[in-house]
Amino acid sequence: MEEIGKTRNWTKIAIAVLLLAALAMVFLISCSDQGEEGSNESAAVQSAVSGDAAAIAQERGLTPDDITAALKTYTPTGVHDEYIMFASGGHSGQVFVIGMPSMRILKEIAVFTPEPWQGWGFGELGTMEVLESGNIGEHELTWGDTHHPALSETEGDYDGEWLFINDKANARLAVIDLRDFETKQIVKNPIALNDHGGSMVTPDSEWIIEGGQYAAPLGWGYSSLDNYADDYRGMVTLWKFDREAGRIVPEDSFAMELPPYWQDLCDAGKKVSEGWIFCNSFNTEMATGGVESGEPPFEAGASQRDMDYMHIINLDKAIEVAQGGNTIEVNGFPVIPLDTAIEEELLYFAPEPKSPHGVDVAPGGEYMVVSGKLDPHVTVYSFEKIQAAIAAGNWETDEFGVPILNLDDVMEAQVELGLGPLHSQFDNQGYAYTSLFLEPSVARWSLGGDYAELNDDPEWSLVSKIPVHYNVGHIATAEGDTVSPDGRYLVSLNKWAIDRFQNVGPLLPQNFQLIDIAQPGDNLQLLYDMPFPSGEPHYAQIIKADKLDPWEVYPEVVWNSHTQSPDPNATLIGEERIERDGDNVEVFMTAIRSHFTPEHVEIKQGDHVLWHVTNVEQTYDATHGFTIPLYNINLSIEPGETASFEFDATEAGVFSYYCTEFCSALHLEMTGYLLVEPE
Ligand code: K7E
Ligand code: CUA
Questions:
Q1: Residue 492: strand pairing partners
Q2: Which pLDDT band, with edges at 50, 70 and 90, does 149 fall under?
Q3: C-alpha dihedral over 369, 372, 376, 379, to 10 degrees?
Q4: Please, what is the Cα angle at 230 between 326 and 233, to 5 degrees?
Q5: C-beta separation of 425 from 481 below 8 A
Q6: Which atom of ligand 1 is nearest to the CA of 148?
C-alpha cells in the first residue's frame, strides 16, 4: 500500500515539476525580448527545474506540497523580505524582528534585559538610564516578560515609526524608536505590580493601553486576601504618547479603577468605535485560590460561572473626566475611582462565555470578537447594538454597581469553531482567524455584515481549519489588527514544538508556523516551521516592509541615540584628549577602522573615569564595539554614534580595551592599553 502511495506521490511531483517547467517556458518567452542574457538565464531556470529539481525532490523525499511551500518561502541571497514581523520575546524580555516569508531572524531588540551585542546595559550611560528607569525603587530588574508588541498607527494603520511593548511580570511599558530600532523609554506602572492587557494603541497612537491582570491593592500596597472584594482592584492605565518627543508622558497619563476581576486583553476601538476600548476579563467569581488549605484551586475557582464580563470603556469621556481632575491619587498617579467611572457612564459590561481570552476589534470597528477558552464559540458583539443598549438603559448591575448589558441585546453572532479558542485576527477577504489551543489548529471563519460580500462563504460560519504543531497561543496575520489587513500570511505562535525539531534537551524551542492564507475558502497551506529559541513569545505584529524607513547610519557624526540629537561630548578626529580634574578623568576618544585614538589611557587607581567614544564612520554597517575587561564595560557604537560610560578605577593593572565587532582586516589591531597605576 505504501509503495502505491509513494508512486502516486511521485506522479504528483512529476506533474508539479512539469508545471514548473511550463512556467519557466512562459517566463522564457516573456523574457525573449530581454536579449541573450535573459534568455540564457531562463534556459538555465528551465533545465534546473525540469532536471535537477525532480532529482533533488526525490532524493529528499519532498511532496508536491513541500515543493510549493519551498517556492513560496525561499528567498535568494540579497533579496529582502516583503513583510517584517515584530515578535515579543516572552521571558527573554526582548523583541525579535523576523523577515517574512523567509522567517529569517533579522534582529533582537534589547528592551528589558541587558544584551551585550547592542551594548545594552553594560556601562553605556544612555542604556543604563533607560534600564534603571524601569526599576522599582531600589529593586533592580534585569529581565521582563514581553507579551504584546504594538506598532504605532496613523488613522488605524501601521505607520512604521514606533513600537511599544509591555512587561507582564512587572507592569512596565517600553517605547522603541523604529528609526534605529532602539528602546528609548521604559515606564513602570505606578499602581500595579504586574499587567497583561498591554500594549495596544488607539488609532493615532495618542494613547497606549496597559490593562491589568491579577487584582491586587492598587499602589503596590498590602491587604489580606480575606478583604479581596473590598481592597483588591483591577485597573486599566492609559499612557499618553507624545509622538513629537517620542516619549510617553506620565504626567498626562491616568488609570481607571476596575472591579477585582482579572482584566485580560484589551483592544482599542477603531473607525466607528474609535474613542472606546474593550477588555475581556475572567475570574468574575473573585476566587482567591488556596488549594493547600482545601480551597478550590484557581483553575477551578475562576471557572465556575458561565459568563465573565467584557469591559466596555468610553475612552473619550474618561479622558475628559481625568483631565477635569475628577480623580484620586495613587502613588502620585491620577486614578478615576470605580464609583466615578460608573457615575460618569464610562464603564459597562457585556457577558462573555466562558473564561474568555482575547478581544479583537474587526477592521471597520463594528464588531468585537471574544473567545471563550472553555466554550467552543467565538462571540461577536456589535458596537451599534452596544450603543443602542447603553442608550436604552436596560441593564442589571454587578455587586460594584457596574451596568451589565444583556447579552442578547449586544451580540451579533456566535460561531462554533472548536476547542480552546484564544485569539483572532483578520484579513482582506472577509475572514477572521482564531487560534484553537486545544485542537490545536487555526480556524478560518467568515464575518457577516459588510464583510460578507468579500467571499463566497455563508456569513458567520466556520470555513476551514488547519492543524498546527502544537498548542497555539496568538496568531498574527499581515497587518491583521489594523483597519486594512493585508491577508497573505498568517503566523501561528505555537507554545509546544515536541517532535518538530531535533531534540535539544527537555527545554524545547517554540514553533512559529507560517501559513499561506491568500486563497479563499478551504484552502490554507502550511509553509514553514521556524524554531524560536529565546523565551516564549506571545504576540507578534506583521508590517509591510516598505513602511519601515530606518536610518542606515546616524544622521550626523556626533549622534546621541538616546536624545536623538547631537551629543555635546562627541569627539571628532583631532579633538581626542584626556582631561583630568583632581581624581576625575574624562576621556574623549574616536573610533575608525582600524584604531581608537588615544591608544594609551593612563590613570591612577581610585580615579573616577568618564569616557566618551565617537564612531566617526559614515559607512553603512561600520559598527565598532568597545570593551574593557573586569569592569563589565561593553559598548556598541554604530556609525555616527557617541557612547559614554563611567566607572571607578578601583583595580590597578593593565587592561587591554579592544573593538568587539570584526570591522576590518586589522580589527585585531583595533585595541589600546588602559594603564591603572596602583595607589
Ligand atoms: Cu494569549 Cu499574554 Cu496575549 Cu499569551 S496572552 S497566548
Ligand atoms: Cu572596530 Cu573591530
A1: 475, 513
A2: very high
A3: -30
A4: 60
A5: yes
A6: 3
